[in-house]
Description:
The chain is an alpha/beta fold. Helix content is 30%, strand content 22%. It has a single domain, classed as Metallo-dependent phosphatases (Purple Acid Phosphatase, chain A, domain 2). Helix 3 (81-97) runs parallel beside helix 4 and helix 5 packs parallel to helix 7 (193-200). The chain is globular and about 85 Å long. The protein binds fe (ii) ion.
Amino acid sequence: xxxxxxxxxxxxxxxxxxxxxxxxxxxxxxxxxxxxxxxxxxxxxxxxxxxxxxxxxxxxxxxxxxxxxxxxxxxxxxxxxxxxxxxxxxxxxxxxxxxxxxxxxxxxxxxxxxxxxxxxxxxxxxxxxxxxxxxxxxxxxxxxxxxxxxxxxxxxxxxxxxxxxxxxxxxxxxxxxxxxxxxxxxxxxxxxxxxxxxxxxxxxxxxxxxxxxxxxxxxxxxxxxxxxxxxxxxxxxxxxxxxxxxxxxxxxxxxxxxxxxxxxxxxxxxxxxxxxxxxxxxxxxxxxxxxxxxxxxxxxxxxx
Length: 304
Ligand SMILES: [Fe+2]
């Protein structure tokens, strides 16, 4: 009986081990995450800021004791470099009052509109226009599309590099201000550059602002969510007949992260400025709410 040459067996084994290692490196991260934390998301404060709303939102957020707060941009009204300086200065007492929370800013078109406003933004917020950070095993990438319609090549390259460098983090959440994905996804485009990058790199959530209404669309396992107004004006939308079903209500969003899962709860303001409705973000899709908007708790009412 002829024996198989020993050198061939060794070469074959080395090739199998090498191929196995390469295959494992190309797999999305399957590491289990030990996350257990909460964060709050605050929507647009401007343009056309409504007095008191932003303060009410912050008070509610503070009473829920998040581990950190994230915003989606348009913090100041802007409108010129001199005006911006004064507007940021007016907000300093508010940041001081809630300085016990790390606050992660996102750059909106009202915040950054010139070189000087960009420098002012960095000085006042302590954040770069784009950056990323970890919280426990979760990874957040904050992009800057404040001065473009969609997303620049530079930002897409940063995102892809950042996601690949943090492949073992879970969940991965991407945040930027302008909600340009709404028109693309509603139009049936599931292949635009940002979507391909997030889909192929294990991102579960993309969060934006800008439109002053709540929107949520899921594509290829990626949940896109626009956090609407936390003070930004909606008068024009109301005059055109838009309301809760169209996502036009003052709110903030509470995020519960356990392991690799994130549950978002949307909280409408109470009283004079809203009806205090609360609902799970997943009960809202591109057709709007899946519940009786007069009382979202009707379906989940306890029997006793
Ligand atoms: Fe905006």
